[in-house]
Amino acid sequence: YSIFYCFNASLYNWNGVGALSADKYIGLKNWDRLLHDRDFWKASLNNIKMIFISIFGQLPIGLLLALFLDMYGKKANVFKIVWFLPYLMSSSTIGILFAYLLNNYNGPIAGMLDTFFHVQMPSLLGNPKFAFYMVGIAIVWRFVPFYMIYYLAGLSSIAPELYEAAVIDGATRTQYTFKCAIPIIMPIIKNAVVLQLIGSLKYFDLIYVMTQGASNTEMMATYMYKQTFQSTRMGYGSAIAAAMFLIITTLALFTVKILNRKEDD
Question: In this structure, what DSSP letter does residue 76 have?
């Protein structure tokens, strides 16, 4: 119902006050405006770039950590706990933490650079050249633990006898990893790519806390929030939300089709 209501509200010039009525109906004008809205498409491009940063940052690191934990078993339990801590924190908390760390006036990193090297730290979150990548680092740090545990669950499901048989046949740990373990958990890796794709198109809270979408870090979700609640353009905000739904669904289905093509063949 909420999805239907969102699409329906996108057809009205509505500020969120009162019910939708015939005198506020404007048809597809919000959608026409959206198609010509450069700010929205710029935000969409930022989401696409964040997909690549997330996939090539979170997934490989998560896999490496999972392989390490699987290799050492109970001996690495302390690492499992420490590495999982970022995922136990809320995105808003992590956004505040990184905003504080990267503060070029009174942040700890700026203080250490000034104290030990007498170097003035540049504004990393206020400079469009750096802000996007600083947000990307925070996002990667936030979600790596999730994919680490996700992969570890898959690796833990592999029978120990398989590794023992590989060792008897003369395989090294590296050969076992790339020729046995990774191919076995490949369906899990594919699912992780889809989950990452969907998540990358919905980033909001961490980014909004760190930069509020300024300095070239605007995403579709932050832009939708500003149009809906700050500018009180509920109708146009609904059009943006509906467009996000269509974009995310289309890309997710396309990605699933591409990843499963080899299996279908």
Answer: G
